[in-house]
Batch of 3 targets.
Target 1
Amino acid sequence: MNNLIEIRWHGRGGQGAKTASLLLADAAFNTGKYIQGFPEYGPERMGAPITAYNRISDKPITVHSNIYNPDYVVVVDDSLLECVDVTSGLKEEGAIVINTTKTGEELKKHLKGYKGSVYCINARKISEEALGRYFPNTPMLAAIVKVAGIMTNEALLEDMKGSFKHKFAKKPEVIEGNMKALEMALKEVRKI
Amino acid sequence: MGIRERLSGNEAVAVAMRQINPDVVAAFPITPSTEIPQYFSTFVANGQVDTEFVAVESEHSAMSACIGAEAAGARAMTATSANGLSLMWEMIYIASSLRLPIVLNLVNRAVSGPLNIHNDHSDAMGVRDAGWIMLFSENNQEAYDNTLMAHRIAENPNVKLPLMICQDGFITSHSIENIELLEDDKVKEFVGEYKPEHYLLNQKEPIAVGPLDLQSYLFEHKAQQAEAMKNAKQVIKEVSEDFEKLTGRKYEFFEEYKLDDAEMAIVCMNSTAGTTKAVVDKLREQGVKAGLLKVRMYRPFPAEEIANSLSNLKAVAVLDKADSLNAAGGALFEDVVSGMYVNNKNVPVVNYVYGIGGRDTKETDIEEVYSDLSKIVETGKAENPYRYLGLRKGEK
């Protein structure tokens, strides 16, 4: 694992990309890391493209700018491929993780010749199966943790159990589904 | 040992306020400081503090309520940003001239217009001459620590001035980062109880607060305010030293980062200082003698100390996150330059206005400044001292 990992999230308002970046920061914090988790605030509205960021490091982080050369990019909604330059500045030794059902050929058109690894996951299917509703952020969180090797699957599951208990204190019925979504995503994220 | 936590800058300030447990908090929500009274009101509702929380109808009323509370003898706090501070304007001066040690967290944001909710320092710079102590914070930790030190500085009998703690809106206020918190009981002990000398609710000493003050007295009262601001320097030093004994975290008037043997340096405040540290580290690896002076205490302004600290450099750039629109340069630049002039320190200094309205300040922007400075070091000439950084070309 590199000393500093920088991650950029692309999502649409309401899909929970910001929450996912904060949950990732939390999980990495709990493994003893120094972390940053911050969204880029714009005119927030449901469905508008949003960006969020994570820095994870063994050393204190002093930089306070957005991330322009991320190690990893997470695309929570593949319709963004049409309108956002998601691979901008993305390091070739890094990877992009996309929530999609598109084929590798179809994705290539949008990735502007990106030479690094491309991972896909059908977060809609997982979310609908595990939760009965479409909340892509939980599967995407598991996917990036696995792809970037931020922690072991077991450590993630253990940690998120605690986080969900806290986050969903008023609706404990969704905890099991979210845990299931994490487990499924850890298994189903695949490199193309 | 402290408590290892991860909090946003706003959460950190709200936690500090919970630990301080002031008598009164009066606030009106405004982005990006809204979360401070929001989290704090939860602490009130949960019974974690016994503060009287006044949900006022405007920022003018928020500051007025704090003034009333402090004049009555209570400890009062508030938080705001940008136009919220603008609406307090009239009361900001009244708070300081009545010598009421109110503590305000200012989450820095551009003052409209046109409407912008993002970070720059135009709000803080608008009140730099209003008689408030102003401390700037690089990150959530410094915002928390400065808040814990605030009351002891402001309430000191030799000071009795209101104090504002600044941090960058969104950049640190909404970024979750590691932080080390103090235990509640240690904060309580460090901050201590407020024992005002004169106050309205003291039956044994009936007083008037804020009566008419015309030609015969106002000048003397203003001179007393100025004297209190001078006294604040020593008090800030002492309180910061006590805080270091408690936490191990050292705070001075400003932080010198790799400045000892530096040839060139950037002077700036708040979160940009962190980004600059990362650039300084990279340049140092390449053998470039770059340094940083991060101003923590902006009011009172440590003019002589900064002039001395910068005196051995060959080139200095002062970064202002607010444009004074005076055709001459930003406020921090003018403070630094006048301090150097009156202390006979002759070093080429240039000014960059940057980051306006939330324009992101990248490491490459800071590298550009050091690259410009290295040219000044070579030639000894600093032409066109009033510059822009990060402005799109061709749109000036």
Target 2
Amino acid sequence: MKTYYNPDDLKKFSKIGEFQKPLADKFFSYYGDVFKEGALTEREKSLIALAVSHAVQCPYCIDAYTVDSLEKGCDEEEMMEAVHVAAAIRGGATLVHGVQMMNKTKEVSM
Amino acid sequence: MKSLLKQKNKFSDISYQLEVLKEGVTSQGLPHFSSKLVESDLFPLQPTGLDVFQINMGKMCNQVCAHCHVDAGPDRKEIMTKETLEQCLVAIRNSSIKTVDLTGGAPEMNPHFRWFVEQVYKLGCKVMVRCNLTIIVANKKYYDLPEFYKNNEVEIVSSLPHYSSKKTDSQRGDGVFDKSVKALKMLNDVGYGIADSGLVLNLVYNPSGAFLPPSQEGLEKQFKRKLKKDFDIEFNSLFAITNIPISRYLEYLVASENYMGYMEKLVNSYNPSAAKGVMCRNTISVGWDGFLYDCDFNQMLEMKVSVSKKQQHVSEFELDSLVNRSILVNEHCFGCTAGAGSSCVGEIA
């Protein structure tokens, strides 16, 4: 059955350079540097990536950063808390627009 | 839970395991381990010496861990005899071996365990015991093991896959975490793991699933912080070990449909520096029946050392032929060379 997402496509990510190599090279070099230990540990970065993967709803990223978080020594509780951070921000982002709705309602109401 | 052997599971058949290992690389177009060694200028793999004498004292164990490469358990009756242990002592005495590493099963279940530890200690070798912790609290006859270890300056190496009971029990069996905590406290009480006591207690982490271990250094800090905070437990070092795709772990990988992905990851994570430092280069592994192997994993795959047939047994231990042998490799060896590498004492690269 054909689907829009194929788990095997994740392994082909590096092949995006086939169509535009210089930009792909720059991206992967930057990507590698971003995830290196810096002011934040690799473990912390992996949990951030896991949370963002859920926020942007990328199934490839969720698969990749679930395993990566486990391989950085994170446990299930920590990983689910990271997902809740993403959910809270997404939920908050929806709800904070409620203020705009309230403003507009008051503007057009007697 | 029964051993694979008792269950008559097809993964208890060595030739079947070797077939699955071969398929894991060939069907995915991945290189063989031997060809990676050729690329690294390490083929044939040869010993750098012989420092560690690892003895599997028997396959009997009080636990049945989901990932066990020995397929150990209470239903395994293979136990090293006193005669074989005496032959081991002769071999140790006639060589430059510095460390005697006792494993199993639960080595403490061998009836000659204490006698043997005392003999090796008298020879001036460091004795390491791969203690599963729960054996200490399994029966009152084992309650004094911490004192016994202390008296013989035994270095303890114990598996604790996680500082949470959920993850440890999922791999090692229900209730194992709580019993392990109790045993760790007993070891701490006699001085094991306590700074400046000289009594070494090292823990071993291995992943509870189809993924690679984290960096040893970061994980050790995490384990130390959590075990101290939650249980007031101390230990010396944490060894992060990769699960080798043989026996029960191989069966788990195949049954959970993680096998191909895991092999691909191991092969793609091949690290030439780790290959250079693999433990089989300075270790000999002795099986419960006295036969010699390059490592504990080759032992479980019944790949005896590549020397003359007669010299494959500890009774005919011949140091020169052993240090000049070629080490036998197969696709499971990718487990020891992935990423930071893996050995019985954790990372190697």
Target 3
Amino acid sequence: MPEELNTIELQDVTFSYDDTDEVSDKSARKALDGISVRIERGSYTAILGSNGSGKSTLAKIIDILEVPDSGKVIFFGKDASDDELFWDIRANCCCVFQNPDNQIVGTIVEEDVAFGPENLGVPNPELRERVDQALKDVGLYKYRHREITALSGGQKQKLAIAGALAMRPDVLILDEATAMLDPSSRDDFLKLVESVRLRKKLTLITITHDMTEALRCDRIIIMNKGKVAVEGRPEEIFLREDLWQYGLKRPVKFNFAFEIARLTGEALREEDLKSDEVLISRLTEMLRKPGIKAPEINRITNKKSADQEPIMTIKDLSYTYDGGDAKAIENVNLEIRKGEVLGIVGESGCGKTTLISHLNAIFRPMEGDVIIHTKDGNLFCSNKKDTVKIRQKVGLVFQYPEYQLFEETVYKDIAYGLKMMKVRKEEQDKLVREAASSVGLTDKELDASPFELSGGQKRRVAMAGVLAMKPEILVLDEPASGLDPRGRQEMFKIIKGLSENGTTIVLVSHNMDEAAVNCDRICLIESGKVKCAGTPEEVFEQGNAERMGIQRPRIARFSALLRTELKRSIPEIRFENVEFVPESEAAAIVRAVSKAGVTDAE
Amino acid sequence: MLSKISLGRYYPAHSFLHDTDPRVKTILYFAYLVAIFIIKEPIAIGVLGAIIILQLILAKITPGILWSTVKPMMPLALFIFVINVFTITEGDVIFSWRFISITEYGISRAVIMAIRLILLIISTSILLTLTTTPLKMSDALEKLFAPLQIIKVPVHEMAMMMSIALRFIPTLTGETDKIMKAQQSRGANYDTGSFINKIKGYITVLIPLFVSSFRRADELAVAMDARCYRGGKGRTKLNPLRLTLRDVLAGIMFFLLAVLVVVIDFSLR
């Protein structure tokens, strides 16, 4: 059957991890629960779903890294339960995983690429040719003798792709392979994978939390609790109103488009979502309809104004790592104002983490200083005697804080800092419970072992551990990384709640869209220097962004297209805000159109 | 701070010693190990030092890199020096106070012991870690110990384990550094306080480090599985070890030099 030879088919597959020791009461839960999926040869499929919905397990079943408890897997006509075909299938299907460091075996680039084909027993002239070709395909050939540790995160993921390509597979599975990359290396990586896919006619399956990334595929499968909840073309999927129940949401530009449709009382159809051009012209058509009511723009009032007093001053701060020749950060001057949410954005390796490590004296300033202004006078990070006080005033939560938990119970873990500060027992109890409730942890969870909780909950525990110390300034390094869209939104809600209670927040992020919406001010770091700082409107203003070479938020880029189109078709339109308004861009546009008073006379 | 420890790290370069067959280097390493342990005479140590300097040049290792490998071991060298100074009581006494007596002989012995330790570290670095990638080293050990397979020693697996351990040293030191920073910002203190408190402080680092190592091990195992790893059987090599005439000659020459050092040492006793 030719058709059978061209599909990967899962029939009624059930699978559960037998980790009774890890999660005692959840052990019976099935990771996959009677799932049936068909994937065509040469297709490009995205698998979406919340954390723990079984996406990664599905990938492992396809690559026979796990054997189903029941059900059948037919891989291009080969039955995966056949022991003879087992290695055949595995060699034909390659996986690239999330963490670059945990999938690289070699120390040198070409050694690692060779690992797969060496296992297949590819003989030598061909082996060399495969390795070189794979490295050329991903553009790493000139780095073939480099040490792995000298590569950036994006390069490491490309190396993982090369390692897969050298096995000459038909199927490539990306299991959240872009999750740890910053936006520009993410784009770069996806473009590479897509071009390789077309050239080599690969079947590509990508597991992701990034909805804009899912939009690039031909087909989307949404998983929920080990089952396929929905499947279809991206346009079909993102038209649905029920994505939220699967922990997902629409890509930012669709959110924006749907908001405009709502405000104009129109509806978007599936065919409108085909491409940016179609969507823009459809939106313009909607907006040109006469008699659109101008929506009220609730000016977000909690935007902190510029005249707030500073709570922290970073002065001429520079830092060079031991043995490094370049400065990791150079001459940074920045003022953090009381009660604001300050976003620090920039690409990986730009010095963000080095900078924030100074804010609570984990790194002592080499040149310059960090000064914290308190009621009882100034504290200086350069002064060793102030360290304890500073660590209490400034809470710092690093990226993936869930990996730092160590106590037997969540309660003890949260209380650790207080214990070290020698806070009285009763006081400790009060602070721990307050901190736990501010991140949404229940009393039941306080008695659990932190290692039993899900990834998102662990992260909250780690945050609570810092919050218990009642810091006035909270520094968060990528607090939402690795979470599904719902988890991200919840995290930002927590942060907003903290901010409303008067905590000053410094938020490190490489997601420009989230920074634009959630921050009062943004500071852009490039190669260790402050490139520009200001409100999101100022920083992402088109002219400024172009001058500075800043990647604008996706929504700003999309709405700029719409604004241009509107200006062309409605010459009398005037936008109140010259530039995009992060939280209420859709309303701002509808309002402008309504003010211009379009008549359908033309 | 921790990430700067280059113990066990490979230094990518093209040099005579980088290109030398790792099996030859491994055998030479054991020869020098024995030589370092046997010799006692300052002149022999001096000759050995000269040979090691020659090797450093042949490996294109700069003083900076050399220092970064030796530096972390300096406290140990100092410790050995001090212990020897205070425990050896033979010879002419230079200084004595109550039960402590320092002798000329003691100092000279202590210096020799410390220098021997440093030479040991240097020769491990130049012959093995700095000039040989972990995978090549595991290839070499696999080949050298292949005869043990007859008595069912899992040589390939052991060699693989070793190379993965070396590959993960920089990753785990980086991780330790991160965890320490994070715990410090939660109030942990590793610099001051009593000895017991410091040890307790390190528990906050070790537990997360273990947990994360297991997680990494799991993920790596899956990744290796996905890349069709199934032990040493039927594996081919991108750069198979090839013993050239040059390797053999270099091996013989350096081996003879090691013997020469031992002979000098014995003749001086």
